[in-house]
Structure prediction request, 728 residues.
Amino acid sequence: MFRSVHDVETPAVLVDLDILQRNISRMAEAARRCGVALRPHAKTHKVPEVGRMQIAAGARGLCLAKPSEAEVFAAAGFDDIFLAYPVVGPDKGRRLLALGDRLRLAVGADSLEGARTLGDAFHAAGRRLDILLKIDVGSHRVGVPPEDALKMARRLAELRGLRLRGVFAHSGLGYHAMTPEAVMQAGQSEGRLMAEVAQVLRGEGLPVEEVSVGSTPTALSAMAVGGVTECRPGTYVYQDASQVSLGTCSIEDCALTVLTTVVSVPARDRAVVDAGSKTLSSDQLRPQVGGHGWIVGRQSRVQRLSEEHGVIDLVEGESLRVGERLRILPNHACVVSNLHDEILAVRGGQVETVWRVAARGRVQ
Amino acid sequence: MFRSVHDVETPAVLVDLDILQRNISRMAEAARRCGVALRPHAKTHKVPEVGRMQIAAGARGLCLAKPSEAEVFAAAGFDDIFLAYPVVGPDKGRRLLALGDRLRLAVGADSLEGARTLGDAFHAAGRRLDILLKIDVGSHRVGVPPEDALKMARRLAELRGLRLRGVFAHSGLGYHAMTPEAVMQAGQSEGRLMAEVAQVLRGEGLPVEEVSVGSTPTALSAMAVGGVTECRPGTYVYQDASQVSLGTCSIEDCALTVLTTVVSVPARDRAVVDAGSKTLSSDQLRPQVGGHGWIVGRQSRVQRLSEEHGVIDLVEGESLRVGERLRILPNHACVVSNLHDEILAVRGGQVETVWRVAARGRVQ
Prediction:
């Protein structure tokens, strides 16, 4: 029997099943239209049930960052996983070796020293691990610059125990763009740079079967570029206030909200809810997104957080009373998932099911 | 058999047992000297084993925020818990009622509407719940201003199912002080304000057996004020970079660090470790504390975080190589605890035991 959302104890993380399904279908359809494989980054939800909805809609497989996350999804039956992260170390190599027995696996690489630690483990077992070379398309986090891609790809391809499957990028720049047009341009630029890199590598006889791009804001524009073969958006599944502020989606597209209770109204212009940084995270993500979460149906925002307190500055004309319940749209959905053991899947005011965030906290 | 820290997979959270024991003993001794009861805020560790060390050193009981946290510690045998939070709602009232059977319990209150939801549950069961009135000593989060304390205390004392045990405050102001002297003054001011409030309430015949203050930076100065009966510091047990920057402690007093591996060195002035905001949290806490974590033994700092990446800006003269291990002192220890299921307790380079962070993620 379903439980009403009214009977849910707060704070609690809710995911609207209708919005979730619509977000999943839309992105899958966009990838189909572009003839590009969709490989959602499952870090946003960390929930096998949501991953299965993505696969059912046509996704080729999932993307994750760490071997311990892949272990959770492998145990849940997923059979095609790419770790879009420069995984490094002989201990990680052993974990990947065990994973490679059970599924089609690939990992990211951007250094010889790092890749060698994995290749050695696979070589000793008489096997080879698929790797994708990470290209830095402008966010200056990890990856080699496009002009160094050929040199690094050649050297990686020579390492024992490894097989070069392709190249990948993540346009973190989209998150810093100030207008929807600039976000679109960041995606186009990512797609074009990657298609060029792939052409150069292939021209020199290197195997590049995969040209993988994507983040939620840049996904649609990057996957439309000829030569791109795969796209890896994550946040689109839930969406969040940062995506709304980027123009990636509207508030009505946000599937994940946090249900809270007002626990204190100590002043006329201040109310405090029972969701703090332990529930919403302290992620700001974009300076343009003021505060720490939008309140659904209100103008007032959560402006300050401590661990268990969300302090709302009440705008003129809005008031709240102790015991009142609010839904908060968080700045960044992925980090909210990582704080909670359970997510309530709701439809029409009823809790249909409770999902365990099975890959929560898997950092190794 | 003990495991060497060298064999630990990264990222991992380490707690040095010798430093931990020293921090616990020092604060217990300071409270004894002042004749004040110590009630550590266990949110910093969320680990029953650490709570037992605090009780063994002389703490009267523990402080927490939410009923679900108290349930974890009650199940672990703790018998005196104060929830320093304006707990609100009939569902919470029922949880507290069950808890009250098993231990000496009190909760915070700052509104009649909120306190009534708890009192009604206790009254219906023919019992009374101890409450402490929260006083806002300047941080403008929750609590009533000192000048409204008498009026609110009178009305709370009249509610059915409740018993007024005293008053409490938390000088969040200490965290915004710019000098150690200003931190000390914030503590003195908190202690004096609270002693005055208690005197006014007692003068009007209200029962105030507890005058509870404290945060780690202000603990020593607040507990030294005459009339204060109890102190509730939390972070002192582990300490962190924010406390070092406040002058509360030195780097050598920090028991908790995060062990990480360098996974990428994409440029001469940049290295990336496998600990991002999923490991270190994105808490900044104090604007004076630049970046997202200090690297033990290095000048370079973690300057940018994404979920799985910590981006280090390498200062002139420092270099790192892929595969190298670093220990990072996080900005805020409490939120790091809340991200991890396990903490490794180490001594002299050996992992002596693994603690489950039993109350992690308990937000309700």
User: Anything to note?
Assistant: The longest helix of chain A spans residues 180-203. Chain A has a mean pLDDT of 96. The longest strand of chain A covers residues 256-267. Chain A touches chain B through 62 residues (CB under 8 Å).
